[in-house]
């Protein structure tokens, strides 16, 4: 980024869009599909996303700013309370919200809450029924949409598959209609407001989520301690620490003779190299910080709360 003001294109427009929904419906997958780049991590475990993640897409004069939010659910820890607050703010502050849901299942309490928030905000909302690649029956999709449109006023309904990028361009086109005349808030080639360090730590957390089961993944936080380019070489040295809640979890993350950690690091390194476009020397330590999800200070320390 430079400090010199960029000349605004004629008729410059922008639109802020929040992507909301209950955990695991594919919000982050949708953000990545919109940007055609991976800025948000994705896993088959609910509550993968922990903080608001901003993605930026600039097409000619229009800049679209997307806010991917943590899946709304009622949790017991202080971390989940922070996450619920972040989602509430994301609906009120934008030009249009996208509520993502799956093609089947009951409307959950969290979805009822989101429908109520959408109604209360008065801002326009679009319904996206995602994962249509998993459904053959079109009637089912229509019935699903009806369940939601009965409960809140949606400006439009889209049937999409984020992983196959089906219907995503039509959604982008519809969202563009909500753009208002305004300067662009990010450089036109920006993809996200997340610093590289944060994306790197998120990639490591994604590999932990994908390789481990049950309680362990949700009790981990990853912090990048060092991120240093080697001058004259196409290489970055990265040191990170994985914090977990129990000594026994530490053992499982490291694995037999370090085998699990090795796997997590090798998968992480591949993705980080692709993201940064250079070679990476990735080192990692595993430490125990008991019950960190209930400690305000530690949550702030790990960068999980916006100041
Ligand atoms: N079949 C299919 N699976 C999908 C689709 N979109 C997302 N998924 C899968 O659904 C799971 C959850 O995806 P995420 O993008 O992490 O969901 P999320 O809503 O961001 O989840 P949280 O961050 O936990 O709230 C992953 O296993 C994805 O691969 C889709 O269009 N089709
Ligand atoms: Mg997510």
Automatic annotation (TrEMBL):
Signal sequence coordinates: none
Pfam families, per database record: KH_2 (PF07650), MMR_HSR1 (PF01926)
Region (G4): 130-133
Domain annotation Era-type G: ranges: 13-181
Chain residue ranges for the region called G2: 47-51
Stretches the record annotates as G1: 21-28
GO molecular function: GTP binding; GTPase activity; ribosomal small subunit binding; small ribosomal subunit rRNA binding
Name of this protein: GTPase Era
